[in-house]
Amino acid sequence: MADRMHKAQVLLVEDDGEVAESVKDGLDARRYEVTHVGSLTGALEVIASNQYDALILDLNLPDGSGI
Fold this sequence. Notes:
Blueprint (H helix, E strand, L loop, with lengths): L1 H4 L3 E5 L3 H13 L3 E5 L2 H10 L4 E4 L2 E2 L2 E2 L2
Parallel strand pairs: 1-2, 1-3
Antiparallel strand pairs: 4-5
């Protein structure tokens, strides 16, 4: 039963604010817990101290490739 109560943790790495807001709004509406960062550096920082169930990663970021 506890697993049903767990909100899936999603890391969204997207530098375009409008795209990020749209994706985040959609995920929020489906009751996901979303952390948004706009760079690879930011992603590496939050990944170092948090666990995520899923990652949505932009390929073209200001500080490198999402590949």
